[in-house]
Amino acid sequence: MIGDIPSSVLVASVLAASAPLVIIALGEMISEKSGVINLSLDGAVLFSAMVAFVVAKESNSLVFGFLAGGCAGMLTGLVVGYLSIYLHLSQVAVGFALSLLCRDLAYFLGNPYSRIQGPTLISSKLPFHDMLPEFLQKILTQPLTVPFALTLVAVLIWFFKFSRTGLQLRSVGENPAAAFARGLNPSKIQLFSVLAGSFLVGIGGAAYSLSLKPGWGRPQGAEGIGWIALALVIFGSWQPCRVAAGAMLFAFLQVCGIGLQNLFPTIPSQVFQTAPFPLMIFTLVLMHYSTRKTRKHGETDSGLQKWLGILFMARAPKSLGKSYRQE
Amino acid sequence: MDVEFQHISKRFGSVKALTDVSLTAKQGTIHGLIGENGAGKSTLMKILTGYQAKSGGDILINGEKIALKTPDDAAQIGIGMLYQEPMDFPHLTVLENFSLGCPAISRERFTASLKHLAYAFGFQLAPKRRVELLTVGERQQIELLRLIHCETSVLILDEPTTGISPAQKALLFPALKKLAHEGMTILLVSHKLDEVASLCDEVTVLRHGNVTHHTNAPFHFPELLEAMFGAVPEQKEKPVARSTGNAVLSMDKIQAGGERQGLQLNSFTAKSGEIIGLAGLDGAGQSTFLRLAAGLTIPAKGEIQLFSTQLPKSKKASRIAGNLQTVFLPADRLEEALFTDISLSDHFSLRDKKSSFWQKNQKNKQRADKAIQTFSIKGRPADTADDLSGGNQQRLLLALLDPKSRMILLENPTRGLDIRSGQWVWEYLTQTLSSEACIVFSSPELDEILHYSDRILVFYDGKIVLDSLTAETDHGSVAAAMTGMTGKEKISNIEQGISNVE
Predict the structure, then answer these.
(1) Is residue A258 part of a domain?
(2) Domains recognised in chain B with CATH numbers
(3) How far is CA B125 from CA A3, A177, B138, B298, in A?
(4) Burial call B379-393: b when 16+ CB within 10 Å, e when fewer
(5) Which long-range contacts (C-beta less than 8 Å, at least 24 apart) are formed by B462-466?
(6) Is A174 within 8 Å of B92 when comparing Cβ atoms?
(7) Which residues contact B264 (CB under 8 A, 6 or more apart)?
(8) Are B123 and B58 spatial neighbours (Cβ–Cβ below 8 Å)?
(9) Structure confidence by residue, pLDDT tens digits, B342-373
(10) Cβ of residue A180 closer than 8 Å to a chain B Cβ
(11) Which of B71, B91, B133 lies at the smallest CB-CB distance from A180?
């Protein structure tokens, strides 16, 4: 128990709060694994959240809403992907500008739909709900985004570790020239992964406006999430389960903030609200040191260093952010 | 499969890399392709793998014309290449590297195939290890096994012994002979004659993008050397000998650099007034040598003394060397010496060691104007460094150089310069600068070294294999030492050895 929140509620709210973040961060991870940084993430999340809400409201269908959100995300991915992969523009510049554009576009186009009721994805009970103990009942009664996010983690672990397409995707992110020499088409593979990844980002955005923070408005509540997701991909060292764990840790810190606020009324509430951000930076610093140590000494680290290495070592795709030009 | 090149040409913009190259590599043989750096060997091979497109000519496999648009086309036919720099994925495991680019089969079958092949060739490779932890030689072994697994029937090797250990070399050579014996066509690109001699059945020599020589084993080395480096030039008049003085640079038991560009040397001393030419093929250790003397590379072992001052083993070394009036002019001027987007006059401002916060624009412009006149640089003070041509960049570097420098280290000082600019550079170095200065330079042009230096060091495989006064050596022995043969006796020994085998 933290503060006056019972632990089952805590776990349930961490799962619920982390689900969209997990989906977004994993989407970004897919595109980064192939070597393309999609920096438009923050704007893309808001844009797809807006599109998803508007479409769900107009069609009165959550399915269409989520699909529209995914497609909106994919559209931003197409812009970043085409400009950076085929026209070799700077991924950072394109992504950054697009992020700001998408954010403003979302506020502008979504304005007529501000602060009105719309369809919301509610928590659903499991089919064998009544057979479970009360503790699990509370944890497992979740909106569909939660099982989707958890399944996604498992699917991506499998995809990158065991599937051939996953290996090819990673190889392009490592060394596109070598991948080309082995008969692959790096540009195509990169575009594919950017599109697939940004579709997931769109789904994640939709999960905000249709489930976690239902409705549309300014602010929506998903502001800044894209930047967090970008940091989470690094924090998770481009590994699905570590990225997901990072997202959950972040959600946990946010939920804790609310609980701890009641426990320590003398500490200003802003401290708990902003605590996750400096903690994130601290973790990144820790990662830097564990990675450097492991590189230097190879396999002969002492106990603590070894664990630091296992927990925090980051290995970025080698040609991340570099545009590949065929000779 | 027989591979036939017919009248292949390749242009990069206006530069001709290959002109009318024709040659045939027969099935079951090892065909050597030799020539100095930039002769066009690698370009020709990249065309055969579909990595680069040709500008003209035809490639025939077993007498049939083929079109190669991508590496995939080449792989389908069974053409595979072992690149000089490992073309692999450092963060992936050995097994993942092995399986990428081959038709998909199950993980277990890939593992089994890798183990089987590694055993057959005597390589020791752990499938789950990450490739970045391996040596260059081991990474090359994985590539070789992968190509064999993918049923490659035409194998191209580009300088396969660069950066690998002698033990790995001892494993690689029998493996190649075995593969050729089993019917593979092997094309070996190299500039090391001793290796070519021990492996190849036929040799084609390229020079400046043309075929200059073709011969079958046994090889006559002087002939090959002449085809590689050009005819022995007539002796030109040597510049006046300079008087030498005290030791200015000494190195003792040095070990530096990684696997590539590594350098090992026992002891070396340079005296003031000496002009020392560093000969050697690309990556044989010359550039490491120059950077060691400039304090830019810190040796793993050994001591370096510059003007009786010991260089510390820290980042301070280069600053201390600079204070001792040592300058280093790298070959890659825009990358390492000049600032791309900064104007000529600002370069003069940056050179000042003591300077006020404010720039003296007028004064810098005057200095630049003066340098443009005295050094005949084709440019204006406001032009940026990358606006200048290669020759004018080199003139700018010389203009920036402190005329009181006592130790001048030059990496390929006439790179990209036409003959007249080159001569101008040398006139400046030998006549305008103090004759007490010690000049150490490397160059890929053997003639330049023979003409301008008083003393020659030849590097081969990270070691100095020849250290001699220029007057006491000649074109032939330096060329032989560069390709791994010390002295003329050794050449005839190898030739005899080969004819004995035949």
Answers:
(1) no
(2) 3-229 (3.40.50.300), 247-490 (3.40.50.300)
(3) 55, 24, 8, 32
(4) bebebbbebbeebbb
(5) B462/B257, B462/B261, B462/B262, B462/B263, B462/B264, B462/B284, B462/B285, B462/B288, B463/B263, B463/B264, B463/B265, B463/B285, B464/B265, B464/B268, B464/B285
(6) yes
(7) B254, B255, B256, B462, B463
(8) no
(9) 888 888 888 776 667 777 788 888 888 888 88
(10) yes
(11) B71
One-letter-per-residue 3-state SS of B385-399: HHHCCHHHHHHHHHH
Cβ proximity of B409 and B329 under 8 Å: yes
Please state, as a whole number, how many other Cβ atoms lie within 10 Å of the Cβ of residue B378.
12
**Model confidence pTM above 0.80:** no
The CA-based diameter of chain A, rounded to the nearest angstrom, is 64
Tell me what ipTM this predicted complex has.
0.82
> Cα(B486)–Cα(B464) distance, rounded to whole angstroms?
11
Cβ-defined contact of B87 to A298 (cutoff 8 Å): no
Domain count within chain A? 1
- Domain assignment present for residue A247? The answer is no
Q: What's the pLDDT score for residue B145? A: 93
Residue with tokens 């192939």: A34
At B420-473, the pLDDT tens digits run: 778 888 888 887 777 788 999 998 888 889 888 989 999 988 888 889 888 888
Residue A207 has which token pair?
């999960």
Q: Which residues in chain A have their CB less than 8 angstroms from residue B99's CB?
A: 167
- Across the A:B interface, residue pairs with CB atoms under 8 Å apart total 59
CB distance B89–A171 less than 8 Å? Answer: yes
| Residue B136 Cα distances to A284, B86, B87, B364, angstroms | 31, 7, 11, 48
> Cβ(B419)–Cβ(B340) under 8 Å?
no
Q: How far apart are CA B61 and CA B269, in angstroms?
A: 55
The pLDDT score that the predictor gives to residue A297 is 39
The whole-angstrom separation of Cα B442 and Cα A207 is 64
Phi, psi of A233 (to 5 degrees): -65, -40
Examine residue A311 and state whether it is found in any structural domain, yes or no. no
How many Å apart are CA A174 and CA A163, to the nearest integer? 17
From CA B397, how far away is CA B333, in angstroms rounded? 8
Q: Tell me the two tokens of residue B418.
A: 């036409």
Q: Does the residue A299 lie in any domain? A: no
Instruction: Provide the angle, in degrees to the nearest 10, between the axes of the packed helices B487-501 and B475-482.
Output: 60
| Any A CB within 8 A of B69 CB | no
What is the C-alpha to C-alpha distance for residues B299 and B311, in angstroms, rounded to an integer? 10
Give me the count of residues in chain B.
502
Helix A7-33 and helix A240-263, axial crossing angle in degrees, nearest 10: 140
For chain B, say whether A167 makes contact (Cβ under 8 Å): yes
* pLDDT tens per residue, range A217-274: 888 888 889 998 998 898 888 999 999 998 998 888 888 777 777 777 788 877 777 7
Q: How far is CA B330 from the centre of its chain?
A: 14
How far is Cα of residue A267 from the mean position of the Cα atoms in its chain?
30
Q: Is A173 helix (H, G, I), strand (E, B) or coil?
A: helix
Judged by CB atoms closer than 8 Å, whether chains meet at B51 and A170 is answered as no
Backbone angles phi, psi at A159, to 5 degrees: -60, -50
Phi, psi torsion values for B363, nearest 5 degrees: -65, -40
Q: What is the DSSP string of B156-194?
A: EEESTTTT--HHHHHHHHHHHHHHHHTT-EEEEEES-HH
Output the CA torsion sign for B373, B375, B381, B382.
positive
Domain hosting residue A52, numbered range: 7-120+134-222
Measured CA to CA, the distance from residue B241 to residue B218 in angstroms comes to 42
Q: Give yes or no for a contact between B110 and B98, defined as CB atoms under 8 angstroms apart.
A: yes
Q: Which residue has the tokens 């030689």?
A: B137
Residues in chain A: 327
Q: How far is B88 from chain A (nearest CA, A)?
A: 6
Q: Two tokens at B268? A: 């070396």
Interatomic CA distance for residues A248 and B145, integer angstroms:
43
pLDDT in tens, B224-250: 888 887 776 655 555 556 677 888 898
Nearest CA to B169 out of B259, B303, B265 is that of: B259
